[in-house]
Q: What sequence folds into this?
């Protein structure tokens, strides 16, 4: 498969991380996104490894597996895997194994941060998404805390 | 002085930044043009802006000259935008006057910067200006907004032609062009609201901001009240065409397009060809992509023209469209011509090479 820049942009739009970035601003990311192929059976993410890139599946299917627990989910075209690795280099939380030959776009942490330095509107869109996620996380915590207090009353 | 000039050109950004700070403390006129050029370089833009602000209003004529010069020679957009922001920071009547001379700046992004800067200046401290010039700019932007509505409506049937757009709205080729038109409309509305803030500073500015937020779907915004206030406060000639853009159903907006503004309806093919030949590289690329995805062979002429475009993304997308539209032998000839023309690495030449390798394996 040979993807042009604009086709890569279409796949990048699938990433929630880029949902607040105007589509046109994704062109520089499309330029750094490498089109790669992963062979069926290949483990391309290992649980516990430090994440340094995200993958967007263009074609094919991958299995997400948790050590000791088995398959958690399957991911197909337009799925984004390891999204937060381009923001923070945290350990991967699960294995990913290609169930079929996969064509994917790969965006590395270093390339992405270089772009953030150069394109403020890209940085702004990404910050907006992260801020929204933070709000959601805080709201979830409040719900949990509130549920906890109700339980303690009922107990 | 020579030493400072050398340091300003040092390969190290840290050294350049240090030299810029030193220059700022000297405030020598000689360095002003160099500092203005540094505004256009991302790594030094912040330091250069700080340095120029230390000079104060004496730099206004040099900033004005930079904006004037951009009408004839290429001045990077980042540099022009930075100049506009500096004028806003200086905030003198002369700065406002320089900005007012650029209400018809052809680059939409820079025009938005000019309007934004003027809106902030007038919000800070009212200054005298020719309201008719602002109204003329407002009329142009309002007409442009209607134009985007008409374009979107004309293109609607092109999207309907695409089987992908029905089955997969997130990745449909049609949605890319649709999205681009939506963004252009949004940016046009932004410029309209900046102009309103210039014309009606004070109480109405909050109303304008509230309507803007509501148009973006922000929760809690009081759109109805804001529209009512706008309706009450602004002059009839300003609101007659403005309010339908904000609150009327699309059918009414389109009726105004055709009956009052005489914007003619065009076929989707005409619209796509017009966009592919236009001045906006992103819209050109989106239109070409659409043509390729829909195999619109009747638009081959527009695709062939785009193969000669200056913009690399436009050329690359034209190659993609040509791959879909042209006969294999014609495509191979077109792609080979691309490679012959390329004197350095470009995304379009790399893409043409990869497609050729697929078509004509070694």
A:
């Amino acid at each position: 498969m040979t993807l042009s820049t604009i086709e890569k942009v279409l796949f990048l739009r699938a990433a929630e991380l880029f949902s607040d970035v105007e589509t046109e601003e994704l062109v520089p990311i499309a330029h750094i996104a490498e089109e790669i192929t992963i062979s069926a059976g290949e483990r391309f993410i290992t649980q516990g490894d430090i994440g340094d890139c995200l993958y967007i599946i263009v074609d094919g299917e991958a299995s997400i597996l948790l050590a000791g627990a088995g398959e958690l989910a399957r991911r197909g075209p337009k799925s984004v895997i390891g999204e937060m690795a381009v923001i923070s280099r945290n350990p991967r939380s699960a294995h990913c194994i290609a169930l079929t030959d996969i064509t994917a776009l790969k965006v590395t942490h270093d390339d992405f941060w270089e772009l953030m330095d150069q394109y403020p509107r890209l940085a702004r869109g990404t910050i907006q998404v992260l801020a929204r996620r933070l709000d959601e996380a805080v709201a979830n915590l409040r719900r949990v805390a509130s549920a906890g207090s109700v339980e303690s009353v009922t107990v | 002085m020579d030493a400072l000039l050398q340091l300003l050109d040092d390969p190290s950004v840290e050294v350049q930044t240090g030299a810029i700070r030193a220059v700022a403390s000297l405030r020598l006129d000689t360095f002003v043009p160099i500092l203005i050029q540094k505004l256009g370089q991302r790594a030094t833009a912040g330091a250069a802006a700080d340095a120029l602000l230390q000079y104060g209003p004496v730099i206004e004529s040099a900033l004005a000259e930079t904006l004037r010069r951009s009408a004839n020679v290429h001045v990077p957009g980042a540099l022009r935008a930075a100049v506009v922001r500096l004028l806003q920071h200086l905030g003198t009547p002369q700065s406002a006057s320089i900005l007012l001379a650029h209400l018809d700046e052809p680059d939409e992004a820079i025009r938005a910067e000019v309007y934004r800067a003027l809106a902030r200046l007038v919000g800070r401290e009212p200054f005298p200006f020719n309201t008719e010039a602002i109204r003329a700019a407002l009329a142009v932007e309002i007409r442009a907004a209607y134009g985007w509505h008409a374009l979107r409506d004309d293109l609607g049937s092109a999207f309907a032609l695409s089987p992908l757009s029905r089955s997969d709205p997130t990745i449909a080729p049609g949605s890319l062009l649709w999205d681009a038109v939506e963004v252009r409309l949004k940016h046009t509305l932004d410029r309209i609201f900046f102009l309103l803030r210039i014309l009606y500073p004070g109480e109405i500015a909050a109303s304008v901001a509230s309507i803007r937020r509501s148009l973006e779907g922000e929760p809690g915004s009081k759109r109805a009240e804001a529209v009512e206030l706008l309706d009450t406060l602004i002059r009839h000639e300003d609101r007659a065409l403005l309010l339908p853009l904000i609150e009327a159903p699309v059918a009414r907006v389109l009726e105004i397009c055709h009956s009052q503004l005489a914007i003619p309806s065009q076929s989707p093919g005409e619209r796509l060809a017009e966009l592919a030949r236009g001045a906006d590289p992103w819209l050109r690329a989106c239109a070409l992509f659409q043509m390729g995805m829909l195999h619109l062979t009747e638009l081959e002429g527009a695709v062939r023209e785009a193969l000669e475009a200056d913009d690399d993304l436009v050329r690359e997308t034209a190659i993609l469209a040509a791959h879909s539209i042209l006969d294999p032998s014609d495509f191979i000839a077109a792609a080979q011509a691309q490679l012959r023309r390329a004197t350095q690495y470009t995304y379009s030449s790399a893409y043409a090479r990869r497609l050729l390798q697929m078509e004509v394996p070694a």
Notes: The interface with chain A takes residues 42, 170-171, 173, 176, 179-180, 183, 282, 285-286, 289, 313, 316-317, 319-320, 347, 351, 354-355, 358 of chain B (CB under 8 Å).
